[in-house]
Design brief:
18 helices; 38 strands; single chain; Beta-galactosidase, Chain A, domain 5; GH-type_carb-bd; about 775 residues; GH92_a_mannosidase_put; six-stranded mixed sheet; 6-hairpin_glycosidase_sf; alpha+beta; Alpha-1,2-mannosidase
Length: about 775
Amino acid sequence: MSNDQQRNRVGPVRAGAAALALAALTAAPVAAQIADTIGAVDPFIGTGGEGHTFPGAVAPFGMVQLSPDTDTACVIRDCYAHAAGYRHDDPTIEGFSHTHFSGAGHSDLGDILVMPVSGATVPLDPGTVAAPGYRSRFSHASEEASPGYYAVTLDGPKVRAELTAGTRVGVHRYAFPAGQPAHLVLDLRSSLYNYPAKILWSGLHLRPDGTLTGFRETRGWAPGRKLFFAMRFSAPLTGHALLDRDKDVPYKGFAPPGQGNDSLAEKLGRALEARLDFGTLDRPLEVKLALSGVDEAGAIANLEAEPGDFDAVRTRTRAAWGEALGAVALEAPAPMKTMVATALYHSLIAPSVWSDADGRWRGPDDQVHRAEGYTQRSTFSLWDTFRAEHPLLTLVQPDRTTSDVVNSLLASQRVSPHGILPVWQFAGRETWTMIGYHAVPVIADAYLKGIGGFDANAALDAMVASASYAPYGGLGAYMSGGYVPIDREPEAASKTVEYAYDDWTIARMARALGRTDIAARFDRRATFWRNSFDVKTGWLRARRSDGTFRTPFDPTAINYGSDYTEGNAWQYSWFMPQDQAGLFRLLGGDARAIRKLDAMFDYDMSKLDYSHAEDIAGLIGQYIHGNEPSHHVAYLYSYAGAPWRTQERLAQIVASQYKPTPDGLSGNDDLGQMSAWLVFTALGFYPVAPGSNEYVIGRPFVARARLRLGNGRVFDVHADHFSEANRYVGAVTLNGKPLGRTFLRDAEIRAGGTLRFTMTDKPDKHWGRATAARPYSLSTAQRQ
C-alpha cells in the first residue's frame, strides 16, 4: 500500500471486521431483475478507519475532486489519518477543496479551499474545533453522498452546502440563511500534509467580468507542482478583499505572465486569501471553479468547456457515472451489492484527467505539451494498481481509459528528464515513491489483451528504457549480478522479485511483437527472483554483494527501509506471479506449499506488534490484506492443485476485510486497488499475473453479475444455490460446457458468454488437481 519513501509513519494496526458481508448472503432471495449499480454506491465507505477515501463529488476519472476537508492543520506525522482530507469521525468541516486522492497511503493536494460564511463578521482563519473561525460543526445526519454529488448542512453559518463536479470543473451551491449577508472565504494557504514552507508562491486576479483566477506553486510530495484555477459566481460581488497574510520576503522564482490591465485587483504572495462578499441573497449562491495544470487561460477555457449551472453539471455527471458503473450489473443481497458497487465506483476515480480541454498538459519536465488524439491522465499509483485496478479497467474501460492510460505513460516517458516511465506520478510530477517499474506490466497487459490506440513498438522501447536505467533503485547491480544487493540498496529482496516480474511482462510483449532479442534478454531476467530465494530456509531473503544472505534473519520483521518494502518475508516470499510452479518446486512440492500457505494465514500474531507500520493493516495471521503484496496469495492454492482452499480463504478475507460502513476497508484503498480486488473476487476470478492473459478462478460473492464489455458483448456470471452455507464451488461451466481448469482466458471473457458456478457446502477436492488444470507458470507452460 503505497506511501512516501520518506516514511512518515503513525497509527495503530487496524484489521476491520466484516462478518456482516457474508452474513448478508442469507438474506431474502435476490430480485429477478438486475437493478442498476449506481443506486447501490455508498461514497462514505472507506472514509473512516484507514480507507482514506473521500465522500465528495467527482466525475469518472475527473480532474476535480470537490470534497469536504475536516482537518488540514495536522503536522506531518499526524496527517496520515487525514490523507483524503475528510475523516468520518471528525466533528467539523474546515472547507471544501478541489483536489483529493482516493485512498492513498500518503497525501498532498487539498487545493483551493472555499468556505461559506454568513453574517456581519468574516473570520479569516479556520480556528480549531474548540475555538472555530470559519470552520463549522456538522452532523452526519445532514450529509448526503452519491456519485457526483455531496451535501451537508454547516451548523455554524447555517448554510446548506451542495457540491457537484464535471470533468474539469467543480460547482458549489450554498443556501444562506434568509436576511444574513453571504460571504465566501477562499484560502490558498490550506493544504493536505502541511510540509514546511509548502506554498512557494501564489496569486489572485479579479477580472473586470467578475471572474476570479489564480494559481499556486507548492513544494510537497510532488515538488514544484503548479495549479491554476478560474471561478465565477451566480451573483455579483458587493465587496472583496485580496489579502496576503505573510510578511516574509516575496519568492522570486516562478511567476505567471502579468495580468496588467486585465485585472481589477491583483495579489501575489505565499499566504493568500480572498474575502468575497455577496450581500443578502434571495436564492442560493452557485460557485463554479475550473482547474488547469497549464495556466489561468487554460482554467478559463476549461470553465467554458463545461457550460451550465449546478443542476446541469450534476445531471451530466450522474449520466456519466450511470454509463461507467453500468459496465457491471449486480444481483446480490443489499450489503454485498453496496460493497461491490462502491468498490467499482472507487475503481473509476483514477487515473484522473490531467490535460486541459484543448489538450495541453504540464509534464514531468515542467513544460507544457499537447495531447493529440487522447486525454492525458495522471495520478498513477502503479506499485498498487498494476495488480488489479488496471486489469479491471481493461475490461470495463478498455478503449477510452486504458488507451488513454498507455498513451499518457508513454508521453510522460518521452518528456521525462530521466527518460523512464512514471513510478508514482500525480499532476504530471514524479514522486519516486515505491519500487519497481510497474508502468511496464500495465502497458504489456493492455497490449497482450488486444487493446490498441498506441504505438506498440515505441511502447516496448519505453519499457526497455525504464528497465535499463541503471541509477534507479539498484537496477545497475541487478542487471550485472542478477539481484539487488542489500549493502548497496535498501529493500533489496523486494526490488529483485518485482523487477523480475516486470521483466517477464517485457519478454511477453517483445515476443508477441517478434522482437526475439529483447524477449530472450528479459526471459532470462524474469528468472532472477531465484537469485534472492534461499532454498535452505524456504524464504526470499536479501543478499549482500558477496553473494551471502544477510543475517540475522527474522521472517516476521517489518522495518521500513530494510530488506522488504512495506512487508516481510512472509508476504514477499510468494511474489513470483510469473512462476508460482517454480516457487512451489523450490519449497518441496505442492503439499509443502499448501502447508506454508496455511501457516501464513493461521500464524499466531498475539506476540507480534506491527503498530509502528501504518500500512500493515487487515491481518489474518501474516496475510496482510490492507497492503498489496498479499493480494494474490489466497489464489495460490490453485497453483498447488487445491482450489477449494482458495475458496475457503477468500470467504475468510471478504468476511473480515470489507463491510458497508465508513470503516469498511481494512487498509488504504490505494487509488482503487483494494476495491478492484473486491470487484474481481466478487465476480469469481482474479488476475494473479497481469500479462498472462489469465484469471485464476476463485468463487463468486454475488448471485449474478453481468459484465458489459467495450466490444458490445456481455459476460454473465451465475452462482446457482448461492448462500452463506454454500461457500464451495461444486462445478463450473463456461458457455454450458464443464470447465476442468482453474483459470479463465481473457479472450474467453471478451468473446462474451456465461460462466456458471454451482455452489455447495462441501469442497470438491478433485477439481483442479491435475497439473494441466492449473494457471500459467513460466517454468511449466508457455501459453500465449
